[in-house]
Fold:
Amino acid sequence: MEVPVKFSSVARVSVVAAITALALTSCAANEGSPSSSESASGAPASSLSGELVGVGASSQGTAQTTWAAGFQTANEKVTVNYDPSGSGAGRKAFIAGGAAFAGSDSALSDEELAGTFGTCAADTKAIDIPVYISPIAVIFNVDGVKDLNLDAATLAGIFSGKITQWNDAAITALNPDAKLPDAKINAVHRSDASGTTKNFADYLNQNAPDVWTEKPADDFPFQGGEGAQGTSGVVDAVTNGTNMIGYADASRAGKLGVVKVKVGDKFVGYSAEAAAAVVAESPLVDGRGANDLAIKLDRKTTDASHYPIVLVSYAIACETYKDPAQGTLVKAYLDYITSDAGQKAAAEKAGNAPLSADLSKKVATAVASIK
Amino acid sequence: MTTQTARPKPVIRLGDRVFARSTLIAGSLILVALAAVAIFLIVEAIPALGADPKELKGSPSSFWTYVGPLAFGTVWAAFLALLIAVPLATGIALFISHYAPRRLAQGLAYVIDLLAAVPSVVFGLWGIKVLAPAVQPVYAWLTDNLGWFPLFAGPVSGTGRTILTVAIVLAVMILPIITAMAREVFLQTPKLHEEAALALGATRWEMVRMAVIPFGRSGLVSASILGLGRALGETMAVAMVLSPSTVISFVLLQSENPNTIASNIALNFPEAHGTGVNVLIATGLILFVITFAVNFIARAIVARRKEFSGAN
Structure:
């Protein structure tokens, strides 16, 4: 009996020693990094200070976290808090004066613009600034099928439950070479409310209004099909199921098959450039202020360098802030997030499409006008 | 004489007072908390009851048609889970209390308790990553061969994320609590009852049936109710695993399943605003009422059965 006892106590001591060693080295590693990053940035001390509160779309959540971290590193006295509680909640909080800016998957409506804004100076309005562009991929997992071409009407038919078999005439007509199985289509949609659903539905509703009859909304409008929670839920269902199709943020498509969507008379796969291009070349919403960049997305584009299934998320800010200090902060923050560095940082973490050069210029002008 | 008149008055020390007070506070705190939750639910739910139905998901004709499928799904999923878990838990508990060798019984009891410590998110992940893909072929076989049976009607779900999968996950989640309670109750069976049964020539199974189960029945019902409570309110695992839809359907293997109230709140709250929030809270109130009613019915059953249970 004695030997094992001794052995175990020896083992215990060595484990403790190993843990201590690990803890010490990890401490050292932690301490090392901030000092090196400080010396690397070498930026002059910023004069900005204060707290910036944003509320809004969860689609921007990852990007906003990245931006907040980047901005706070450059401006040590500033705290940025972004609460990803949803687009509607964000606009509401901003209008009521509870947030310095809102993140929103849709621009302010005309009714909202007609009202007053609690955060803004009297008689001034708020403006929409596109900050986050993300292509939505239509992903599929069907045995033996690598490439799939679909148009809006067929997609609308599949997701609304009107097309139920993979070898339906509408699908085979678009894919003469693919070996489509005689099996039921399992279409996956988001079971939670989501801007991704709204933008996908908007694309289908604009291009195939007689098939996709429902107005685009955060909730999936039809009864049929499979529901899954969140982007990862959809991706998971498509990956693990059989004869699946679904839609998700393009950054999460991974190794799954991605549908090429008919644009004009060509079939286009998603890419960051094509997504940014359709946003940049879409017209602005009519009748807005000079610096309001609410975009009327041209989902019916026929230009094959465009990818029309894209989500645009805005930062909504005041033209003139009641509190000038807040104005300066918001201006500096938005300036950073729409800059090349900010967009690249977000693209690395969130996989969105950085703003194109044209749009960046317009955005920079709009941001510069904030007081 | 003097000592006798002084004696009836009990000595109350500071410790007694403090202890009595603190138990009183602890006891009333739970009532206060319950009342606070109920008041919150009712106050927040009132705007939803008169809300414009257009603001609800799937634009139903009224709040009640909105909450109907959810209430049905909640009870249906919990019922299925209980159907799986109770016989299994009774078996495990009997094995631990009366059949297994003592060392094995202790180890097994420990493992079952450990199952209770697994967070529901992990059960949810297990449900989608492991269980659903594993049972999907079985479901496909069932719809192909037993599709005439209404519960197994096709078309089969392509992912296996159906209400039956949810019920299995829920059953695993409520298994530990039912097992632990049932085991304790079965162990309480008076030794004399058991020995009397054996002395009359009963086999071990007959002894269990005649002495242990009648004695433990009301405890078993209580245990099941605790499990049912957890199954009714389970949120995360259901939200992750289930492929929800707004239907009332008993079918087990399809993609369109009735959602549960708790899971529906979890799915829609993050992006809800305005009356949408009130509507979700109102469905929470309905869940509160359902849980209350279920508990009430169960208590009534236990009370009615008590006199026949042999526990006295």
In short: Chain B has one domain: 50-308. Residues 50-308 of chain B form a domain with the MetI-like fold fold (CATH 1.10.3720.10). The first strand of chain B starts at residue 244 and ends at 245. The two ends of chain B are 43 Å apart (CA to CA).
